[in-house]
Amino acid sequence: MRKPQGQHSKETQGTLRIIGGQWRSRKLSFKAAEGLRPTSDRIRETLFNWLSPHIHDASCLDLFGGSGALGLEALSRYAAHCDFVEADTQTCRQIREHLITLKCNKAAVHCQTAEAYLASTAVTQQIIFIDPPFHQDLLAPTIAALAKQHLANGTLIYVETAANEPLPALPENWYIDKDKRAGNVSYRLISVHA
């Protein structure tokens, strides 16, 4: 997310709009910390069209919680639960505040890195969102850590990167089902075949 012209602070005020489900059109404000770049409305619309047969009652994992855009959108569309993982303390606090604002008790916020979470927790969620800050070399170690997990057959994994960032090698049983590009962003939906 770019800073407004004339803004010299590392933080700017951002607004997240939930685009579908029970909280459709709700707007949530957040301080946009460095590297925080919520998934655009257009991309979220496409992603949740892809996920529409699977999202209801699904358990979700948002590994780079950030603004909370992906996990909150999933919860708005009646996912059963979402675990948000976010390394930045202030950003974790903001996700918790969003959940309170929305009166949502179907989520947990884990203030730690994705790698630390994956090293200490067995992943049982059916839908996993991986949308790390761009160009910080976080995707390859995250995929490697997830590959060590015994993911269930049919687990769906969403991966978002900068368009000029190569996708790391995927485990043999991960298959790219959908792959699109919007501007400078590439995004894909991957299914696990156990």
Quick tags:
9 strands; Rossmann fold; 5 helices; 194 residues; disordered N terminus; alpha/beta; two-stranded antiparallel sheet; globular; seven-stranded mixed beta sheet; single chain
Give a written overview of the molecule.
The chain has 194 residues and is of the alpha/beta class. The chain has a single domain (12-192), classed as Vaccinia Virus protein VP39 (Rossmann fold), CATH 3.40.50. The chain is 25% helix and 27% strand. The protein has five helices and nine strands. Strands 5-4-3-6-7-9-8 form a seven-stranded mixed sheet, covered by helices on one side. Helix 2 links the parallel strand 3 (59-62) and strand 4 (81-85). It is globular, with a radius of gyration of 16 Å. The protein starts with 11 loop residues before the first strand and ends with a strand. The model is unreliable at 1-10 (pLDDT under 50).
CATH class: Alpha Beta
Low-confidence stretches: 1-10
Domain module count = 1
Task: Write the CATH architecture name.
Answer: 3-Layer(aba) Sandwich
Shape: globular
The average pLDDT is: 90
CATH-level-4 superfamily name: Vaccinia Virus protein VP39
Tell me the layout of helices and strands.
Layout: E1 12-17, E2 27-32, H1 41-51, E3 59-62, H2 69-76, E4 81-85, H3 89-101, E5 107-110, H4 114-120, E6 127-130, H5 139-147, E7 156-162, E8 174-182, E9 185-192
Parallel strand pairs: 3-4, 3-6, 4-5, 6-7
Antiparallel strand pairs: 1-2, 7-9, 8-9
Helix pairs in contact: 4-5
